Amino acid sequence: MAALRAEHRLTVLLEVAGLARSTFFYHQARAGRPDVHAELKTAITAAFQAGRRRGHRVVHQDLRKAGWRVAKKTVLRLMRELNLACPIRRRRRFSSYRGTTGEVADNVLNRQFTASAPNEKWVTDVTEFRINDRKVYFSPVMDLFDRQIIAYSVGTSPNLELTTSSLRDALGTLKAGQTPLVHSDQGFQYQHRSWRTLLAAAGATQSMSRKGNCLDNAVIESFFGHVKEELFHHTRYLTVEAFTTALKDYITWFNTTRGHTHCQGLSPVQYRAQTLAA
Description:
Blueprint: H1 10-17, H2 21-31, H3 38-50, H4 56-65, H5 72-81, E1 121-124, E2 127-131, E3 134-143, E4 148-155, H6 160-171, E5 181-184, H7 188-191, H8 193-202, E6 205-208, H9 218-232, H10 240-256, H11 268-277
Parallel strand pairs: 1-5, 5-6
Antiparallel strand pairs: 1-3, 2-3, 3-4
Helix pairs in contact: 3-4, 4-5, 6-8
Protein backbone atom coordinates (compact mmCIF):
# COMPACT_ATOMS: atom_id res chain seq x y z
CA MET A 1 0.00 0.00 0.00
CA ALA A 2 2.89 2.34 0.76
CA ALA A 3 4.17 1.89 -2.79
CA LEU A 4 0.77 2.80 -4.24
CA ARG A 5 0.55 6.09 -2.35
CA ALA A 6 2.52 7.84 -5.14
CA GLU A 7 -0.32 7.16 -7.58
CA HIS A 8 -3.45 7.06 -5.38
CA ARG A 9 -4.86 8.96 -2.45
CA LEU A 10 -4.39 7.26 0.91
CA THR A 11 -8.09 7.56 1.79
CA VAL A 12 -8.98 5.58 -1.35
CA LEU A 13 -6.40 2.88 -0.61
CA LEU A 14 -7.58 2.52 2.98
CA GLU A 15 -11.17 2.21 1.86
CA VAL A 16 -10.33 -0.50 -0.70
CA ALA A 17 -8.17 -2.41 1.78
CA GLY A 18 -10.66 -2.03 4.60
CA LEU A 19 -7.99 -0.64 6.94
CA ALA A 20 -8.24 2.06 9.56
CA ARG A 21 -5.87 5.03 9.12
CA SER A 22 -4.27 4.35 12.52
CA THR A 23 -3.65 0.71 11.60
CA PHE A 24 -1.83 1.68 8.43
CA PHE A 25 0.48 4.12 10.20
CA TYR A 26 1.09 1.64 13.04
CA HIS A 27 2.36 -1.05 10.66
CA GLN A 28 4.27 1.47 8.57
CA ALA A 29 6.16 2.58 11.70
CA ARG A 30 6.92 -1.04 12.61
CA ALA A 31 8.18 -1.92 9.14
CA GLY A 32 11.59 -0.41 9.67
CA ARG A 33 12.12 -1.91 13.11
CA PRO A 34 14.16 -5.09 13.67
CA ASP A 35 12.17 -8.28 14.29
CA VAL A 36 12.08 -8.75 18.07
CA HIS A 37 11.31 -12.45 17.57
CA ALA A 38 14.13 -13.14 15.10
CA GLU A 39 16.19 -15.23 17.53
CA LEU A 40 13.12 -17.07 18.79
CA LYS A 41 12.03 -17.83 15.23
CA THR A 42 15.44 -19.36 14.57
CA ALA A 43 15.10 -21.54 17.66
CA ILE A 44 11.56 -22.56 16.67
CA THR A 45 12.69 -23.54 13.17
CA ALA A 46 15.57 -25.60 14.58
CA ALA A 47 13.27 -27.36 17.05
CA PHE A 48 10.69 -28.09 14.35
CA GLN A 49 13.28 -29.52 11.96
CA ALA A 50 14.97 -31.61 14.69
CA GLY A 51 12.07 -34.05 14.83
CA ARG A 52 9.52 -35.68 12.58
CA ARG A 53 6.51 -33.49 11.73
CA ARG A 54 6.44 -31.77 15.11
CA GLY A 55 3.47 -29.75 16.34
CA HIS A 56 3.63 -26.54 18.37
CA ARG A 57 3.22 -28.34 21.71
CA VAL A 58 6.32 -30.48 21.21
CA VAL A 59 8.28 -27.49 19.85
CA HIS A 60 7.21 -25.47 22.90
CA GLN A 61 8.43 -28.24 25.22
CA ASP A 62 11.83 -28.28 23.53
CA LEU A 63 12.13 -24.50 23.79
CA ARG A 64 11.30 -24.60 27.49
CA LYS A 65 13.92 -27.28 28.07
CA ALA A 66 16.43 -25.11 26.20
CA GLY A 67 15.74 -22.22 28.59
CA TRP A 68 13.24 -20.13 26.62
CA ARG A 69 10.43 -18.45 28.53
CA VAL A 70 7.69 -18.27 25.92
CA ALA A 71 3.96 -18.94 25.82
CA LYS A 72 2.58 -21.86 23.85
CA LYS A 73 0.27 -19.54 21.89
CA THR A 74 3.27 -17.41 20.87
CA VAL A 75 5.01 -20.50 19.52
CA LEU A 76 1.88 -21.43 17.57
CA ARG A 77 1.55 -17.91 16.10
CA LEU A 78 5.19 -17.72 15.05
CA MET A 79 5.08 -21.23 13.54
CA ARG A 80 2.15 -20.10 11.42
CA GLU A 81 4.10 -17.03 10.31
CA LEU A 82 7.01 -19.32 9.36
CA ASN A 83 4.69 -21.82 7.61
CA LEU A 84 5.89 -24.58 9.92
CA ALA A 85 2.79 -26.74 9.95
CA CYS A 86 2.25 -30.23 11.28
CA PRO A 87 -0.50 -31.68 9.01
CA ILE A 88 -3.57 -33.31 10.52
CA ARG A 89 -3.19 -37.06 10.68
CA ARG A 90 -5.20 -39.14 8.23
CA ARG A 91 -7.51 -41.73 9.74
CA ARG A 92 -7.47 -45.20 8.31
CA ARG A 93 -7.91 -48.09 10.68
CA PHE A 94 -7.11 -51.74 10.19
CA SER A 95 -9.78 -53.96 11.72
CA SER A 96 -9.02 -57.51 12.81
CA TYR A 97 -12.54 -58.11 14.10
CA ARG A 98 -14.09 -61.25 12.61
CA GLY A 99 -16.96 -61.76 14.96
CA THR A 100 -16.86 -63.89 18.07
CA THR A 101 -14.33 -66.60 17.20
CA GLY A 102 -13.17 -67.31 20.75
CA GLU A 103 -13.66 -65.77 24.18
CA VAL A 104 -14.35 -62.05 24.66
CA ALA A 105 -13.02 -60.48 27.87
CA ASP A 106 -14.59 -57.64 29.84
CA ASN A 107 -13.42 -54.05 29.42
CA VAL A 108 -11.47 -54.06 32.67
CA LEU A 109 -9.30 -51.07 31.64
CA ASN A 110 -12.44 -48.95 31.18
CA ARG A 111 -10.50 -46.02 29.65
CA GLN A 112 -8.31 -45.61 32.74
CA PHE A 113 -5.24 -44.76 30.67
CA THR A 114 -2.87 -43.85 33.51
CA ALA A 115 -0.70 -46.17 35.57
CA SER A 116 1.17 -45.55 38.81
CA ALA A 117 4.06 -47.91 38.05
CA PRO A 118 5.75 -49.61 35.08
CA ASN A 119 4.23 -52.85 33.79
CA GLU A 120 0.90 -52.21 35.49
CA LYS A 121 -1.20 -51.59 32.36
CA TRP A 122 -0.36 -52.47 28.76
CA VAL A 123 -2.27 -51.76 25.56
CA THR A 124 -1.83 -53.37 22.17
CA ASP A 125 -3.37 -53.48 18.70
CA VAL A 126 -2.50 -54.15 15.04
CA THR A 127 -2.28 -51.64 12.20
CA GLU A 128 -1.32 -52.00 8.55
CA PHE A 129 0.89 -50.15 6.07
CA ARG A 130 0.92 -50.44 2.27
CA ILE A 131 4.39 -50.73 0.76
CA ASN A 132 3.90 -50.70 -3.02
CA ASP A 133 1.69 -53.74 -3.68
CA ARG A 134 2.34 -55.40 -0.31
CA LYS A 135 0.84 -54.97 3.14
CA VAL A 136 2.89 -54.83 6.33
CA TYR A 137 1.33 -55.35 9.75
CA PHE A 138 2.65 -53.83 12.97
CA SER A 139 1.83 -55.14 16.45
CA PRO A 140 3.27 -53.09 19.35
CA VAL A 141 2.79 -53.43 23.11
CA MET A 142 2.77 -50.09 24.97
CA ASP A 143 3.17 -49.47 28.70
CA LEU A 144 0.63 -46.86 29.83
CA PHE A 145 2.94 -45.72 32.64
CA ASP A 146 5.25 -43.83 30.27
CA ARG A 147 3.85 -44.65 26.78
CA GLN A 148 6.98 -46.68 26.04
CA ILE A 149 6.84 -49.34 23.32
CA ILE A 150 8.25 -52.29 25.23
CA ALA A 151 7.94 -54.86 22.43
CA TYR A 152 6.66 -55.11 18.87
CA SER A 153 6.52 -57.40 15.86
CA VAL A 154 6.21 -56.77 12.13
CA GLY A 155 4.97 -59.18 9.47
CA THR A 156 3.23 -59.48 6.15
CA SER A 157 0.22 -61.29 7.63
CA PRO A 158 -2.00 -60.30 10.60
CA ASN A 159 -1.83 -63.84 11.93
CA LEU A 160 -1.63 -65.28 15.43
CA GLU A 161 2.18 -65.36 15.44
CA LEU A 162 2.33 -61.60 14.78
CA THR A 163 0.51 -60.75 18.01
CA THR A 164 1.73 -63.60 20.21
CA SER A 165 5.39 -62.89 19.37
CA SER A 166 5.11 -59.26 20.51
CA LEU A 167 3.29 -60.38 23.65
CA ARG A 168 5.92 -63.03 24.41
CA ASP A 169 8.70 -60.46 24.04
CA ALA A 170 6.84 -58.02 26.30
CA LEU A 171 6.18 -60.66 28.96
CA GLY A 172 9.87 -61.52 28.85
CA THR A 173 10.71 -58.06 30.23
CA LEU A 174 8.67 -58.53 33.41
CA LYS A 175 10.28 -58.76 36.81
CA ALA A 176 9.12 -61.13 39.52
CA GLY A 177 5.71 -60.17 40.86
CA GLN A 178 4.69 -57.97 37.92
CA THR A 179 1.33 -59.03 36.49
CA PRO A 180 0.04 -56.39 34.05
CA LEU A 181 -3.43 -55.75 32.79
CA VAL A 182 -3.25 -56.27 29.00
CA HIS A 183 -5.87 -54.45 26.96
CA SER A 184 -6.74 -54.95 23.26
CA ASP A 185 -9.70 -54.77 20.94
CA GLN A 186 -11.82 -57.82 20.07
CA GLY A 187 -9.62 -58.93 17.16
CA PHE A 188 -9.62 -62.65 16.50
CA GLN A 189 -5.98 -62.89 17.63
CA TYR A 190 -6.89 -61.67 21.11
CA GLN A 191 -9.89 -64.00 21.41
CA HIS A 192 -7.73 -67.00 20.53
CA ARG A 193 -6.68 -69.59 23.11
CA SER A 194 -2.96 -69.02 22.39
CA TRP A 195 -3.26 -65.38 23.52
CA ARG A 196 -5.21 -66.23 26.65
CA THR A 197 -2.77 -69.03 27.50
CA LEU A 198 0.21 -66.68 27.40
CA LEU A 199 -1.57 -64.20 29.67
CA ALA A 200 -2.65 -66.87 32.13
CA ALA A 201 0.86 -68.32 32.36
CA ALA A 202 2.21 -64.86 33.28
CA GLY A 203 -0.58 -64.13 35.74
CA ALA A 204 -1.71 -61.20 33.58
CA THR A 205 -5.30 -59.96 33.34
CA GLN A 206 -7.00 -59.71 29.96
CA SER A 207 -9.13 -56.71 28.99
CA MET A 208 -10.93 -55.90 25.73
CA SER A 209 -12.55 -52.84 24.21
CA ARG A 210 -16.25 -52.93 23.60
CA LYS A 211 -17.25 -53.99 20.11
CA GLY A 212 -16.71 -51.23 17.53
CA ASN A 213 -15.48 -48.70 20.10
CA CYS A 214 -11.95 -47.56 19.22
CA LEU A 215 -11.96 -44.92 21.99
CA ASP A 216 -11.67 -47.74 24.53
CA ASN A 217 -8.12 -48.18 23.20
CA ALA A 218 -7.48 -44.52 22.36
CA VAL A 219 -3.83 -44.32 23.46
CA ILE A 220 -2.55 -46.99 21.07
CA GLU A 221 -4.75 -45.55 18.31
CA SER A 222 -3.12 -42.16 18.90
CA PHE A 223 0.31 -43.78 18.71
CA PHE A 224 -0.55 -45.32 15.33
CA GLY A 225 -1.57 -41.87 14.12
CA HIS A 226 1.82 -40.46 15.13
CA VAL A 227 3.71 -43.30 13.43
CA LYS A 228 1.85 -42.82 10.18
CA GLU A 229 2.18 -39.04 10.16
CA GLU A 230 5.76 -38.78 11.41
CA LEU A 231 7.21 -41.80 9.61
CA PHE A 232 5.04 -43.11 6.82
CA HIS A 233 2.74 -40.69 4.98
CA HIS A 234 5.45 -38.33 3.74
CA THR A 235 8.06 -40.91 2.69
CA ARG A 236 7.98 -43.48 -0.07
CA TYR A 237 9.47 -46.86 0.90
CA LEU A 238 10.49 -49.02 -2.04
CA THR A 239 10.80 -52.28 -0.08
CA VAL A 240 9.36 -53.87 3.04
CA GLU A 241 12.90 -54.18 4.40
CA ALA A 242 13.52 -50.44 4.05
CA PHE A 243 10.29 -49.69 5.91
CA THR A 244 10.94 -52.14 8.76
CA THR A 245 14.42 -50.64 9.24
CA ALA A 246 12.93 -47.13 9.37
CA LEU A 247 10.24 -48.35 11.79
CA LYS A 248 12.89 -49.79 14.12
CA ASP A 249 14.73 -46.46 14.13
CA TYR A 250 11.47 -44.60 14.73
CA ILE A 251 10.56 -46.69 17.78
CA THR A 252 14.02 -46.12 19.25
CA TRP A 253 13.57 -42.37 18.68
CA PHE A 254 10.02 -42.47 20.07
CA ASN A 255 11.15 -44.22 23.26
CA THR A 256 14.40 -42.39 23.92
CA THR A 257 14.14 -38.91 22.38
CA ARG A 258 10.61 -37.78 21.47
CA GLY A 259 9.00 -35.68 24.20
CA HIS A 260 5.46 -36.47 25.36
CA THR A 261 2.99 -34.26 27.19
CA HIS A 262 2.06 -37.29 29.32
CA CYS A 263 5.71 -37.51 30.38
CA GLN A 264 5.96 -33.78 31.19
CA GLY A 265 7.93 -33.14 28.01
CA LEU A 266 10.39 -35.99 28.60
CA SER A 267 10.81 -39.09 26.46
CA PRO A 268 9.38 -42.35 27.89
CA VAL A 269 12.83 -43.64 28.84
CA GLN A 270 13.78 -40.34 30.51
CA TYR A 271 10.47 -40.17 32.36
CA ARG A 272 10.76 -43.71 33.67
CA ALA A 273 14.33 -43.19 34.84
CA GLN A 274 13.48 -39.89 36.54
CA THR A 275 10.34 -41.24 38.22
CA LEU A 276 11.96 -44.42 39.51
CA ALA A 277 14.96 -42.47 40.82
CA ALA A 278 12.77 -40.07 42.81
